Amino acid sequence: xxxxVDMVFRHHGMPLDIVSDRDPRFTARFWQEVFTxxxxxxx
Length: 43
Known about the structure:
By secondary structure, the chain is mainly alpha-helical. It has two helices and no strands. The longest helix has 14 residues. It is globular and about 25 Å long. The protein starts with a helix and ends in a 6-residue tail after the last helix.
């Protein structure tokens, strides 16, 4: 998640579309960390 924020978000902004197989082990943990790094909370 840190690498995503540093290399993608900071240079290109948040992607408009994200393709995922919706594996809950990836989505929950990854996005929770991304939002934490951006200073946001998921509800």
